[in-house]
Amino acid sequence: MPQGESLVNQAQIGWNYKDDIEAEYGKLNQWKKNWDTAVEQARASEEGRQRLVEVFEKDLGIKLSVAEKKEIQETPSEILLDPEENTKLNAIVNKLNSQIDGLKGELDSLKELNSKERQDALVEKINTEAAGLVEKYDGKDGNPVFDKAKVIEYSVQNNIPDLETAYRIMNFDALKEATKKQALADAKKIQDERKKGFVEGEGKPADGVEPPPEKKHRKRSMRAIGETALKDMNAEGSFSFFTEE
Question: Domain total for the chain?
Answer without folding.
Answer: 2
